[in-house]
Amino acid sequence: MSLVKIQGERWFPSENSFQSEMPSLWGNWYCDSEIGKLRAVLLRRPGKEIERVTQTNFSQYRWKAPMNVEKARAEHDQLAGIYRSHGVDVHYVEEAHPERPNSLFMRDQVFMTPEGAIVCRLGISARRGEERYAAKALGEIGVPIIKTINGDGIFDGACGMWVDRETVLIGTGSRANKSGAEQVEAELRNLGVKYIVPFEIPYGHAHLDGLINIADRKIAALFPWQVPYDVVKVFLERDFKIIEATNTDEIKTNACINFVALEPGKVVMPANCPEMKAKLEDAGVTVIEVEVTEILKGWGAIHCMTAFLNRDPV
């Protein structure tokens, strides 16, 4: 009887990088800036959860006042329409925790990278649990989740901001602690980020996007009395023009820094900020205004509502 020669293991690993295979295996998901041509976003249209906010309980959700539900939805729809008119694929989180009216502020739940999403762990108890529904939506459309903040870490996505492919601002404060920031930093360094710029978010502020933002390849806008010099120095060393927002009513009431770049040098920003709009336009930035008066009652605006899923590399 002849013996069959049994061969050894003949399966060999592929040496292709995750990023090189992502378009064919996962889809087109990428972000390494605040300004690259915007291709896809994740939003949560205000659902029944915002109807639970009333005159008697709004403070427990960290809101200024209850929203007019229909006006809030109309404002959100207008923003989504602007995105679509500029070629952006708009994806939605279709389900939300019924007791989490802040779910429409998607930026805090997801921090996007060149290889997928970091699902955050929100800082305040009134929001904890929103992340589960963001993760579900990401999975349904095929966005890789490369990290979920865990352990004793907390990190809201708006505590991180890309400066360029090798440089990221990481804020710590009431919405991001040392453990959460270190978890994000570890993932970013694994993706080739060389420079992590620490930003201690002052008392009275939650996130970076109320203090600083990027409008063009070499234009940044910021609240000058609340951004540390060492952070500004990073931008100056990279030859950025700094636009100072100095109208405190526009900054705190109308969220003039809370804009989203549709592409380099073109932003959509909250209406009713004439001084900031003029400064951006004087610097050569094209500005599209959108009304977010109702949304602002939840202490959030355009950048807060928008989780980036895909931007062109700059």
UniProtKB/TrEMBL annotation:
UniProt GO molecular function: arginine deiminase activity; transferase activity
Keyword presence, Transferase: yes
Alphabetized UniProt keyword annotations: Transferase
Name of the protein in question: Amidinotransferase
A Gene Ontology BP annotation from the UniProt entry: L-arginine deiminase pathway
Gene3D superfamilies documented for this protein: L-arginine/glycine Amidinotransferase, Chain A
Coiled-coil segments: none
Pfam families: DDAH_eukar
Keyword rRNA processing among UniProt keywords: no
